[in-house]
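Our consortium's second objective concerns turning raw sequence data into structural hypotheses that experimental partners can test. To show how far this objective has progressed, the report includes one record in full. It was chosen at random from the queue rather than selected for favorable results. The single chain below, 507 residues long, was entered without modification.
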Amino acid sequence: MLRRLTRDRRGSVLVLGTFGILLTGAISMFATDLARVQVARARIQGAADAAMLAAARDLGAPEATLRAAARQVFDANMSGAPGDLAVSRFDMVFTAETPGRESDTVRLEVDARLPLMMARLGDAVRLTDLTRVDIAVVSAARKRVMGAEVMMVLDNTGSMAGQKIRDLRAAARVLTDALFDNSESVPNVYVGLVNYSATVNIGRQHADWLDRSLAQTDAEFAPTPWKGCVRVRSTALAETDAPPEAGAQFTPQFWPSSRLSWSPLKYDAYYTNNKNHKNLWPPEKTVNGVVVQDTGKPYVDERQSAGNNGYGPNLGCPGPITPLISSRQAILDAIDGTNGAQRVDAWSRGGTFGNVGLAWGWRTLSPRWRGLWRYRDGTVNPALPLDYDTPFHNKIIVMMTDGVNQHYQTDMTAYGRPNEMIAKSEVDPSMLRLCQNIKDAGIIVFTITFGGSVNQNTRDTYTSCASDAATEERIVGQKYFHAPTGAQLKTVFATIGGQIQELRLVN
């Protein structure tokens, strides 16, 4: 009897010991599984949120394209997740917050399964409902365009001729469509355009900004009218947003005939050897050793297609500024030259003066110029530009170039002849001072260099000019881009459009 009792006690101890081991193991496995589930859920949620923000940037694209892009981002963010975590469902739904409009919200539902360590205990005690846990997450993002004034400051110099200017027009259309969300207008969104070369065209509707009457100006330019380009004001005003009040008005940029003016030309070997590059109006020819007017040619030839062989008082003057406007079509007209507008194009002669274009970009956004900017028909929006500190509203310059800031030979520019007001070595420093003044005023600056021949000095200048990606928190992301090709330029403009838009996770 004693032996039997002893055996029973030993059996009980064995059973209790086994149960204790199982209990301890179960607690440990449960804690481990709980941690693994929490980590897996967080990883899936983070990957889903990243996928939604990526998809929301371009909701106008085909849904199949967005699904593929979102899945690519999701999978990239799942890198490092437990290898036995399996996604069983990845379902995206596109909806429009406003009926009848394109999708502006995307919703993603993800189901996944994670095998549990508790499954081992389940085998031991013959339980089958501890083998896995099902994880379900939902993420949704909405795309909205924040209130914004966006001014595109675009290089229209002769080096942009051909495919490059076509690429620029295509990229500018991409940004315009993004900003207006492919609608004709968006509340509190205004876009404009500054074309620059060696000068900027303010448009004839702003003749009251000149230091002389329009009638006097046109008489000086006869037989052609003044196109709209102006000189830089004094050095003290060149890098400011001072409005065109008394003492701060502008002088028309007049390029006199080389035959009649600026005697240093006869000492210039370049012009001696390249007579077609003189600015001869009226045109000349030699008959029996005598120089006479060439009546077989027009008195002036200021066509864009004339390139370096054009001549006239408006030589090298690009298309006019398009002031801020809440109209997608008006901006597309200014880009493509439709509905009577003059398109973005490459204008030869003069050189490249990015600082001049940038100064005018600032003036189009500065509230000091409120009510001064007129559209082509002479009308004005008296409320624009808005104040710098307008709530939920950003002022933005998107500036691009394909080359070095410099004079072209001894041509006329907004600064006059070479070294007349500014030395070549001072153009980049002038631009950088302007960049800083503009950013200090509260404007966000994006810069782009375009083409495979842009030198490192220009890239460094435009990098310094751009708003800092780390400290400029109102719009997240990098602010300087280099686009070697036309396809990459379109991608850059699309990226900037996506950054300007507000992308909000809604659950």
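The partners drew two points from this record. The first strand starts at residue 86 and ends at 95. Residues 256-312 form one domain. Both points have been shared with the crystallography group to help prioritize constructs.
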